[in-house]
Write a structure and sequence with these properties.
8-stranded mixed β-sheet, 247 residues, Spore Coat Polysaccharide Biosynthesis Protein SpsA, Chain A, alpha/beta
């Protein structure tokens, strides 16, 4: 399937939005994205088998020729994003969550960053609650960590705030089954392969933190170490394969 990921000559954007039971917020997110799209941009929505009214909410939007809907069935968020990434046709791929809201300047600043040579982009999030009220800076004071090892031990990349050149998908796809998150995988592999990773300080995504997220349980240290070792193993394995292809 990766054969279709050939280099694109245009400078347009493909937004990949993964949805699952998102009827409560997805219209608000789409309303923030669509005004920013140019006529040759595209929005790919990958739904992972929603059982609520998400698909009904999406139906009116599908009249826009720039929007396509791919229906999956319980792939999980990581693979749900992978499906959309494989279908993207434009040079820059921007990831989006169903329950966030984009700042009006997000795509403008994203395009600018890639015109200036970025390979992978991370924009700053503005942490908000369910009603888009800004959360306490003491609890949610985001700061991106640069470099491989800081992000290996404590990932500071957020998928919903990331974008990357489409050609890189041939390097980081498929996502290994044993890794937990696609955002750290993309960023860490980018560091290992010497990509230009750019961070914008502008808070361009209103990143919702739901009530259920606030009291998340801390994982046992043994499980954290095990997951990190699997991550490192897979990164080295993929790096070795990519190195062999370039030799």
């Amino acid at each position: 399937m990766l054969d279709s990921l050939t280099d694109s000559k245009n400078k347009n954007v493909s937004v990949v939005l993964a949805s699952f039971n998102g009827e409560k917020y997805i219209q608000e997110q789409l309303d923030s994205i669509l005004p920013q799209l140019d006529k040759n941009d595209e929005l790919i929505i990958t739904d992972d088998g929603s059982t609520d009214k998400t698909l009904a909410v999406l139906q009116p939007f599908l009249q826009d020729s720039r929007i396509s809907l791919l229906e999956n069935h319980l792939l999980g968020f990581k693979e749900n994003f992978a499906v959309g990434i494989k279908k993207a046709k434009n040079e820059v791929i921007v990831l989006a969550d169903q329950d966030d809201v984009w700042h009006p300047e997000r795509l403008k600043e994203t395009r600018k960053a890639f015109e200036e040579g970025a390979d992978i982009l991370m924009v700053a999030p503005c942490f908000v609650d369910e009603k888009l009220q800004i959360l306490s800076k003491e609890r949610y004071n985001y700061r991106l960590q640069s470099g491989f090892w800081p992000n290996f031990w404590k990932n500071s990349f957020i998928g919903a705030c990331m974008a990357f050149r489409r050609e890189l998908a041939k390097e980081f796809l498929p996502f290994p089954n044993s890794i937990n998150y696609h955002d750290s995988w993309i960023a860490l592999l980018g560091y290992m392969t010497k990509k230009k990773i750019v961070h914008l300080d502008q808070k361009l995504v209103y990143y919702r933190r739901h009530e259920g997220v606030f009291s998340g349980e801390r994982r046992k240290i043994s499980l954290v170490i095990k997951s990190r070792m699997w991550l490192l193993f897979n990164l080295l394995k993929r790096w070795w394969v990519l190195r062999g292809k370039k030799a």
